[in-house]
Amino acid sequence: MTPDAAYDPNNVFARILREEIPSARVYEDSEFVAFRDIAPAAPVHLVVIPRGAPPTSPAGLTEADAGWAGRMVVAATRIAAREGLAAGGYRLVMNCGRDAGQAVPHLHMHILGGGTLGPIA
Fold it and tell me: Is 106 a catalytic residue?
């Protein structure tokens, strides 16, 4: 997947948004949906995805996306608090491209917590 890849409306997250694939949703509003990751990398591992057809990765973000991208971070922090992660701490992660571990070409954010997390680098 390249940072400028065309959006695939049949990617797994688009299909989750259309409820063609089931997910364990923990949050949804008019802009975002959050659900439990099917292959958790932490005791609590959630994925936050924007509705619609966002850029395929963070590399595709532009100044015009600043509003909703900022609201996505705010939504993620509220979701983390609802999940009981605020006191112990949590990590917000956006991967960009295959080498960084991005598996789905639909911009998304991971919320990781629920225990001591290892170092990033």
Answer: no
